[in-house]
Amino acid sequence: MASNMANHNESATSAAIETNSPVEPATNNDQSENDSECSAPDDLLADSESYYNNAKNYWSNVSPTVDGMLGGFGSISLIDIRGSEQFLKHLYKQKPAPGRTRALDCGAGIGRISKNLLLPLFDHVDLVEQDEHFCQTARTELADFGSKLGTVFNEGLQDFVPEQGRYDIIWAQWVLGHLTDEDTVQFFHRCSKALARGGMIVIKENFTSSNVVDLDRTDSSVTRPLLQMKQLLKQANMRVVKEQRQTSFPKELYPVYMLALRPMIKK
Q1: For the residues 239-256, what does the mean pLDDT come to?
Q2: Which of 79, 138, 154, 176 has the largest CB neighbor count within 10 A?
Q3: b/e per residue, 245-264, with b = 16+ CB within 10 A?
């Protein structure tokens, strides 16, 4: 997983089952800052060291396969990638559009997203993943891409500091639920500095259907409401330039949204 978090890019689906089916789409685009605060599982998050260590231990026992990364939902991988491809196509209609030189895969797991989405589109792709075994598997799985495969950073996202001005696209999928709120904000701050001219951060995450944060103590992760994520983005001085819900996933899964982000323009 990528940052202890694990999930990494893929792993997050292990906590994706939502009991209150059918799932209603989150529609907080019309919600204001005055909406009620989202509740948070403060007891677990109070000790961030234990929170991260628990996740790290959990993912160290997960099989380094697509099915392992997706918590037994390996069958959704193709649908997931196709949805992400369409979202990226829309981003390249933005002005200014991102470049296609270098991308960063955050919480990369075994490189599922790098292999099927990022490496075919970008000249170079770096990965960051906290589980050493997953990093080794990713290097093997992606070896055929030769020099297009850049550095595989073996580090948790709460500690990772990307090089400034390096990336056209920074992709973080199913991994931010393993970061505390504070570390999520700091992650966005660091990534905003790492964007090249015209660059964007893309997050793809599970979101709850209510204003309640769901806690998974098994893999030490949270699933946030979309409203709360937008509150964290505001704290990080980020703005949403494109938002889209992933379609065609099983109904028993959480709603999954893709958000394209850029730093707010300073007046």
Answers
A1: 97
A2: 176
A3: ebeebeeebbbbbbbbbbbe
The pLDDT of residue 38 is 58
Q: Is the pLDDT of residue 2 over 80?
A: no
For 70, residues 6+ apart whose C-beta sits below 8 A from its C-beta are 10, 11, 13, 14, 76, 77
* Gap between the Cα atoms of 122 and 238, Å rounded: 24
DSSP string, 249-264: --TTBPPEEEEEEEEP
d(CA 34, CA 129): 37
